Every structure is written in C-alpha cells, then in structure tokens.
Amino acid sequence: MPLKKEYVTTIDEFLQNPDITDDTDATAGDIILFTEAVFEGYYPKSTYEGDRRILAKVLKESYGKLKGQHTFSLEVLDSDGYDPLPKGTKIRRLGRNVYRKDFYMLPLATQEQREEKHQRKEKANQRKYYNWLSEADGYLDELYIEFNLNERYKLLNKARYKLDKVYKHYNELDEGLKDLYQRINSKYNELKNEF
C-alpha cells in the first residue's frame, strides 16, 4: 500500500512517489526537493565544496516589496550530499536558487492557493517595474542640476539601463505603466538630444 502524499519524509520516499512533478510553481503546503551548491568561505574568496539535496516542506513564500524576488521559508524534512542540513531546520531560500537545479515538487497546495500566489506575483512584478521607471525618472531629473558632462552621461546611461529593463517586460505592463514608460522614454530622448 503506497504512503499518503503528506507522509513523505525522506528523499527516497519522495522520489518513489508517482505524483511528483518538475513544475516550478511551488507554494505554501507543497513538498519540494532541490539541489544547491555549497561553498566554504565568503564571496569573493569562497570555494565550491559540493552539492546538497534538500527535501523540504514550503511553510511560506512571498515576493519582496522592492525587487519582487520570490522567497521561500522551508522546513527541512531530509537532506543529503555535502554538509546535509538536520531534519527540522528552518531555512529561507530565493526562488531562483530553489528552481535552479534538479527541482521537483509534490503538489499538496490547493488550486486556490496557487491562483492567489499568481496574483501576488503579478502585483509584485508591477511594483518592480514601477520602481525601475521611478529610478529612471529620478536619474533624468538629476540631469537638470548636474553640470559635469561626465556625470551627465553616467546619469543618462543609468536611466537607459532601467528603461531597457522595463522594455524587456513591456507586454506584462498594465496600461498605466505602459503610459508611464512612454512618458519617461520620451523625456529620455529629449534630454539625450540636448547633448
């Protein structure tokens, strides 16, 4: 008789479960398995020591207010590889690091929980794009008070960099952000032509 999904507590049990998927849509309540690199020392002089697998229950996940980075709060159920973590340890990991290598998920969360997560992600992305546009606009405003030509070019390049970041996601912008992008991009072009 197979174990119920909720009772998976070891990596071996997890890997034998027919319900696991490599879908990168984890949310609170799911059980996940991922591999992370382990380093000794501190950046930039750290050295790669090996990989560690972590089987964990997702306790909470959120999107940062400023950059919209996806972060997981996890409880370790099992771990192996280099310097394995003890069972019961609570850890936090960025989503991009969790999903990076050999990610698998046992979906236990409801569809409503996933939809709510997707709505939070969309709001976080819109906030991030707004912040980038605000930064670009701020750099352009500084051009009115900066007289050093070198510094003016730096500010112009910083503004262009932020505008280009937003443009890569232009189709994801809501209508208000599209209008804001167009206004700030026009302002950029006008100021650029003054050089």
Short overview:
Helix content is 41%, strand content 24%.
Keywords:
195 residues; alpha+beta; SH3 type barrels; five-stranded antiparallel β-sheet; 5 helices; 5 strands; 24% strand; elongated
Textual characterization of the structure:
This protein has 195 residues and is α+β, with helices and mostly antiparallel strands. It has two domains: 5-109, SH3 type barrels (Roll), CATH 2.30.30; 115-193, no CATH class. It is 41% helix and 24% strand. The chain has five helices and five strands; from the N terminus they run H-E-E-E-E-H-E-H-H-H. The protein has helices at 11-16, 95-98, 111-142, 149-167, 175-193, and strands at 31-40, 47-63, 70-81, 90-94, 104-106. Strand 2 and strand 3 (70-81) form a beta hairpin. Helix 3 (111-142) packs parallel to helix 5 (175-193). It starts with 10 loop residues before the first helix and ends with a helix. The model has no long low-confidence stretch (mean pLDDT 92).
